[in-house]
Each structure stands twice: as structure tokens, then as C-alpha cells.
Design a protein that fits this description.
Layout (H helix, E strand, L loop, with lengths): L2 H4 L4 H18 L6 E3 L3 E2 L5 H10 L1 H15 L7 H23 L9 H28 L5 H33 L10
Antiparallel strand pairs: 1-2
Helix pairs in contact: 2-3, 2-4, 3-4, 3-5, 3-7, 4-5, 5-6, 6-7
Length: 188
């Protein structure tokens, strides 16, 4: 739990937070026009970013995902539910990181069947938490049927991250590792 807050004490982690926020917001904003639940959620290929970056960069990516989602909400979907979206996207990334950390003891060099399966599980677990929190937000503010929003967010996040994630992980892992940017608790 301490690692969630110590990231704010290291320049490298703060840069990763900023980059994650920028990449996530920058990938979310173009799809704001393709709304699934008007005013609340859209088609989100960017849903791969919190899971992928969470696995690669750890807690810093969770903060970046939360901030990036909030920034993107300013481009057409800012509402009281955005506070729930902040928490939801933080947990979406952080839970994916935790699942990966539990099941994959060492970082992969290639994405074999085990890593793809764990990536999918990490995506699903993070998506359930994200969908539940966003669903709670729309239920609290009575903005839409919570069950529908839960299902849309769950399916959207899980499919997008599950399909795009392993491909991007295979393409990016070696480069990120070579740059010394993979999350390592001692470095964070």
C-alpha cells in the first residue's frame, strides 16, 4: 500500500504518471464521439492502456490512468460520476498490476500462453472493479441504469484490453525493459 504514495516522491515515477495520463487521455478523447451510453461511456480501445501500463509501470500507471481518464472527461463527459471514474480507472490499472505481480513472478521476455492468460485475467479483474465503481456512481446520481453501465464497461474494458494488450505487450516489453522503465519496487 505504501508504494501507492511513494511514487509521488520520485521524479521518474512522476514522469511515468504524466506520460500515462497523456497517452490515456490522448487515446480516449478521439473516441468520445462513439458513445455507447450517452454522456457516460464510449467505445474505448484506450482501455488497454491502464492494464498494459499498470503491468509495466506499477502504481505510477494507476495514478496516470486515473488522471488521464479525468482529463478525457473534460472533453464531453464531465459529470459527478467523473469522481467515481477517477477511482475506477485507478483501481482498473492497480488491480491489473497486482494480479500480474501475483501470477507472474518475473517479467516475461515473450508473451507465452501463461502470460497471455494472466494478462486476460488481470484485465478481467481490473474491469470488474472499474465497472462496479462506475456502476455505483451512475446509481448514486441516478444518471443511467447501473446494471447496463456495469455490463458495458465490463465488456468494453475486458475485450479491448484482452485483445490489444498481449499484442502491445509483445511489441513494447523489450523496449521498456531496455530503457530501465519496468516497475521495480526498489527503484520506484
Amino acid at each position: 500500500m505504501k508504494e501507492l504514495f511513494t511514487v509521488w516522491q520520485k521524479t521518474k515515477s512522476i514522469v511515468i504518471i504524466a506520460i500515462t495520463a497523456a497517452v490515456y487521455a490522448g487515446t480516449l478523447i478521439p473516441f468520445k464521439a462513439i458513445q455507447i451510453v450517452p454522456g457516460l461511456t464510449e467505445l474505448r480501445p484506450a482501455s488497454v492502456i491502464p492494464v498494459l501500463f499498470g503491468i509495466l509501470f506499477g502504481p505510477a500507471a494507476a495514478w496516470g490512468s486515473a488522471i488521464g481518464n479525468l482529463i478525457a472527461d473534460f472533453f464531453g463527459m464531465l459529470s459527478p460520476v467523473s469522481a467515481f471514474g477517477f477511482v475506477a480507472n485507478f483501481l482498473y490499472s492497480y488491480i491489473a498490476f497486482l494480479v500480474w505481480k501475483i501470477f507472474v513472478k518475473q517479467q516475461p521476455v515473450v508473451m507465452g500462453m501463461k502470460q497471455v492468460s494472466v494478462f486476460s485475467l488481470a484485465s478481467l479483474c481490473g474491469s470488474v472493479a472499474c465497472a462496479a465503481i462506475v456502476g455505483l456512481g451512475v446509481w448514486v446520481f441516478k444518471m443511467a441504469p447501473a446494471k447496463i453501465v456495469f455490463l458495458v464497461v465490463l465488456i468494453n474494458n475486458t475485450l479491448m484490453a484482452g485483445i490489444l494488450g498481449p499484442i502491445l505487450m509483445k511489441l513494447l516489453y523489450k523496449r521498456i525493459s531496455a530503457m530501465g522503465l519496468l516497475y521495480n519496487k526498489e527503484q520506484a
